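Ticket #4471: structure output looks truncated?

Reporter: J.K.
Steps to reproduce: submitted the chain below (1261 residues) through the standard prediction queue, then opened the result file.
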Amino acid sequence: METADDLFSPDSRPKMGLLSRTLIPSPIVQWILPARLRSEHQNDVVFIGERSLQIKEAVSGFHLEDATSKSDFDSNIMAAKVINVGTELPWEAQMKLGASTAPVNSEPQIGLPPQILLLSLASRELVFLYYSTSSDQFIHHHRPLPSDVSTFERFGRNIAVEPRSRAVAVSASSDYFGVFTLKQPPVLQSQMAHHQLDPISEERFFRVDGDIIFMEFLYPRPEEDGKILLLLLVAQDQITHAICYEWDASEHLRQASPIVTKRLLPFEERLPTMLIPLTKTSSFMLVTTSTMAVYKNRLDPRRQPSRYPLGLPDRESRKSPLWTRWARPLRNWLYNQKHDDIYLCREDGQISYLGIGNEGEVENQAHLGQLCCDVDAAFDILHFGNEGGDLLLAAGNTGDGGLFVQKARDHPRCVQKFMNWSPVTDSVIVRSPNQQLPLSADVASDRLFVCSTSSFARGAIVELRHGIEAQIGLVVSLEGLSGTRDIWTMPTGTNGGVIVLTSDPMSSVLLDLPADFEEEICAIDEADSGLDCGSQTLAAGITDIGIIIQVTERAIHLGTTSESMRCSRYEYGYDQSITVAAVDGFASLIVVAVRNQGGLHLHAKRLTPSGNQLSLTDVGEPVRMHFEPVCISVINFDFGSLICVGAGNGKIFLYVIENESITFVSEKTMDVAYNEDISKAIDSLAIVNKVENGPLKKFILLCGLRSGILVPFGVALDSVNVVSSIVMTQVTPQRLGNTSLKVQSRGDLALLTCGQGFWQISCTYDSVMPDCTLQRIWITDQNNSAYHPRNIHSFSVASFANSDVEDLSNTLFCIADGQLMVCTLQRDEKTVPRRIGLPGSATKLAYSQYLKSLVVAYSRTEFDTDADPIKRFTRSHIEFVDPDSQQAICGPEDGLRPWRPQGAAGEKISCILEWTPKKGDEEYHFIVIGTARKNQQDRGRVIFLQASRMSSDPTQIECNVKYVHKFEGPVYSIAPYGNFTLMVSTGHEIVPLEPKFSQTRWLRAARYPVPSPAVSMSSHEPYLYMSTSRESLMILNASEEKLVLHAYDRQKHDGLSHVHIGGDIQLTLASSRGGRVSLLTEKRITDNDKMMPVALCEAHLSTSVTRLSPGTWQSTMPTSSQVIYGTAMNGTVYRFLTLKEKEWRLLYLLQNLCIRDTFICPFTPKRKRQRNPAGNESLEFQPSQMHINGDILSRLSIRGPSYLMYMLVTEEFYSPSTPETGSPQAIYERFLELSKDLLGETSSPVEDVMKWLKRTLHVGF
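Returned output as attached by the reporter:
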């Protein structure tokens, strides 16, 4: 084992790495672009975020569903446009479509998309891409941009596409722009038919002096169809020119001599917010804060622009919201001959509609209403064929986005929301209630809450969750559902609907749900169904011919949905009772355990219809059972059926039905690996992943125990001799809770519940041991973003038979909170936020362990409209919020809520914390608040609140102000120290503050001056850790009743947050502005040298981590590592793990293999692909090289062990003439060596490494 001294050898630093993983990407949507990137028949919409894109498909009912996504750009996306590549390109021909969705290609290429997407990346390259449905992947072409332009100028900030898609233009922020001519559409379609894309024909770069504000192609006149017109707005020395470049499309770009026209813009139009090309007379419109100006015939100096007023600023706020986005609706061909209509959208969501005539004149202007969301980023129109209205798509950097229906002379109506929790102003980790026993490593006990704000003052607390969303589509409220134990769903096959059978200990209910939910939901009468509604249902199912089978304690009932078949029942004797049963509708098989005076016997019966009669025939003789059965599951093979019986003693008993006889096969005792005195009774069984390879049969058996433990088994058998060949291999058990675990399967899909948890389990059985992964399921309600069910009593999964949507997601039926909920179960994991609305903009967030409540600070702005000028007052408020609250929080004007403190006008709350000082046996509880003020003499205050739950209503919390301590400087942060002291960062000082009953008396000299304010502090006696705003990390020693400097970071960064990890070498993880996250050590700190060593590791992320928080979850690495979460203002959530040298070396090799792989990292520069993945390990690494990018490794983990094996042995990057690239043999040997060092000797190192990697990267909340 390595010791601290071994790690710090005289000639080297310790090898400590840092693994980062983006758990939740930023929700910010920069652009929403309708673009058919998959095929002409699919209504695709592309949502483009900061570093990724997502394709959603518009389906019936004005709803967007997730289709696919791409997040491997490894760079920020700076601009995006859509290029038409259909064989009928002119925009006028596209207008002929009107609202139709029919194909337009004159010679259509079957299955090819008519559009491609153009992106510019911060890595200085253009990317052209589309999605190939036949190969199920994105096809892209990327073209590097000139690298001799300074970083500040950001080549690619502006891009434009010519209306007929003959050329694209790209510019830097200033001085440079380039033009690329594109190949003809038939050529591009031919390339796409072969899964290729190379659209650029020619390119040419130009120089222009000044800042390029806007760049757009203009629409040529019909008589100038062969012209290409490019317009730039260039600002220099406080003046702006409009510059137009004109050339003939038939000329070669490099030989063309563009005609350049230049026009000085008036002073009031020198900084417009929008440049809009108009389809008439080669005109364009400039939109400013208050006016619109239309310039006709390009930049014809003989014609003066026509100017039109815009809406006046809001009197109440005295602001002038900017008009920031525009979109052109699709109209029919005849209308577009003489009109060009435009939607304008203001940043506050105000919509205006412009009607533009044939000569470019604004003929009418109508204000349509408010979108109720911020629109400073994305705005467009979905051409979906909505009769009588337009579908508007909008999103911003703050607040939610949405899909809106805009009908003529009506206000926009939101039909779907796109939740956005940015900007994040604070975050907190809430630990789940203490479990009686430790849970599985796959089940995280951390809950992450963030608080956000918006320009509408509609702040919120958002719980960020990851998993599979089940969105509620229908809720059925019936009396008695709260006692429901089981639910079964059975497709009727007649109208595409589903029959739902629910059961409680005393009765059963049969419901008929139509597929479209538009018809009335009705209960089926007992007489009509042939079932027994007065008894508990033990098992149920439906056969292929529509026979409903119900098993109760005394009988087997056969009902039917067809009038041609008669219902019947098989009753057992008065001295017999059925204890447990299973129904296999596919095989028409019913298996029951029957108790009588002679004991327990296993019976099997098969349904055999004869004419219009239904009858049950015995399958073999009953088999005696010498144990207490709890559950039964049946699986069918070509030779017969296998019956799995779970017993109360923790054993599994297997029986086989072969040649219409029942034979006992074997029994298996589970090893739950827990020494506690727990129940091993198997409450439920489910079978998934059935594979038949000739006589060899394999499947996975999932066992749910009454004690909350999941035990999977891999089962293999040979049908030639089932009894002697069956082998059951147990997988490591996983504890998911402390109550009964219910598991249910349908095909390869398995769902399970335990307590308040709901999971989907995905399994693979490619090797000797099955591999099972848990994914949380979150039930959501579009009408109430704070909703989540408290308890899920029972559930079932079904699919509608005749759905008009291909690949319809499974429909989840569940009983929760006393209601039947019908939910759409999504296919893929994603972020599933839960939002608790606030009456103001949230700024700070904390959690009180004593109150079991969140404490949030938010601000509200009020106006004194009687004053002239109008006065604005912004005050801070405090509120206590239940983490499980299912409703938005009301404002302070709600008289039913207890009193809450509020700050003075202009006073901001800078920090909140819970403090529990102790004196002897007495414990005090305070909520401590730090504030900052500008105009008062005492610019900072520390306020002590006493809070407790009301005895008359424990759901409410009452509070009062106990103490207020004032400081000359603003308070930035506070940290508890010891039993009685608070360390306060005020101004440029650290001041100890203690209550009157404190036994410690700090000297007046204990105040410690700091060069810059400490924005974050934590204490680990005797040290005080501080992230300062200019000097990065500083550490003070607080011993001997005074503060002295202990250590400081050798590099001065703008510090943001930190977490002290500790350990033998005293590690601290610190974040600073610019996206830097550093792993620092205090080793080698002496009294004479207080400068900390160079960072052991540095991660350079795409966004700054404003808050680091320690988690409770431990990694599954051989040496455990505490999880640290990091949140950024743009809503991104990271997870960090420290790595020991063995872990880092293996992950570093895997990362290098991924970087050179063209599928995992398609945008890696060619020179980096030629590097040896196993090379240079003996050299001293820079801190940045000790960072492992978990986002890259996650792309490898989803591809499985076979792809890793391919990467290890491929010769694609090796040439004997360049041995420095590394031979496959050497790389594979190095991999075996590193895997052995970390995981030990294994029979399948590639598979074991992939399993370990998958667990390490697993997202658990």
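Triage note (M.O.): checked the attachment and the full token line is present. The chain has twelve helices and 88 strands.
Status: closed, working as intended.
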